[in-house]
Amino acid sequence: MPTLLILMILAAIGYVLWDTSRAAAERATELGRNACQAADVQWLDQSVHAIGLRLCRLPSGWLGFERTFRFDYSYDGVERHSGRIVLRGRELAAFTGPAKARVSHLQPRSDATEDLESR
Fold this sequence. Notes:
Layout (H helix, E strand, L loop, with lengths): L1 H38 L2 E16 L5 E12 L6 E8 L2 E6 L14 H8 L1
Antiparallel strand pairs: 1-2, 2-3, 3-4
């Protein structure tokens, strides 16, 4: 009987850990997608990837988990850049990702530039 009770408690703890991990991944997905949309960049793979987990003290004073997620984005659809989201509980602790999208304008070539290149 005690073995069955221990197994049930362990299963409940495992479910709670899995459920909070899934909720954190969904929150990181939402934050990454919104950041890419705000910066007008392409969010690649439509997902985040968990790359770190550690214990930390939450603002409430309780022990909790700090989860780190990675996501990919592209300014031009060719080059891939990585962003990082750190969540403490459900709160955003750190973000590294796309800045405001930059558009560079091509300058028309002048005759002087062509003369220098031909030498």
